[in-house]
Amino acid sequence: MPGKFVVSLxxxxxxxxxxxxxxxxxxxxxxxxxETVVFLSTEGTRIGVKGYADGIHEAGxxxxxxxxxxxxxxxxxxxxxxPCFKKRGLDENNLVAGAVIVGGxxxxxxxxxxxxxxxx
Length: 120
Known about the structure:
The chain contains 4 helices and 5 strands. The two termini are about 25 Å apart. Helix 1 (about 15-30) packs parallel to helix 2. It is globular and about 35 Å long. By secondary structure, it is α/β, with parallel strands linked by helices. Helix content is about 35%, strand content about 20%. The protein has a single domain (about 5-120), classed as 3-Layer(aba) Sandwich (Hypothetical Protein Ychn, Chain: A). The chain has helices spanning about 15-30, 65-75, 80-85, 105-110; strands spanning about 5-10, 35-40, 75-80, 100, 115-120. A 5-stranded parallel β-sheet has the order 4-3-2-1-5. About 40% of the residues are buried.
């Protein structure tokens, strides 16, 4: 079932359950042949930095690092909100695989033809 899908994530270590479930859903979408983007904003931008998700493993789910890696390997894209990232002083040279720093216009462009989305 082709199409697009967006998972918006605003959480990181402040709510590891939501961060994990966001990537579980993103993996399900990309496995369903959806062109899938995870949009990381506010605190969620921290997930886009290599090593940040180390040790995050919610009971009943795969480790967050594995979910992120599997998502990228399956062709999923990770958009990291540029102003949110910069506000937190994060290192743009240390992004996880599949992640790119973008402005809001890039997300709007991706969603402009009616991409459904969920937020965590």
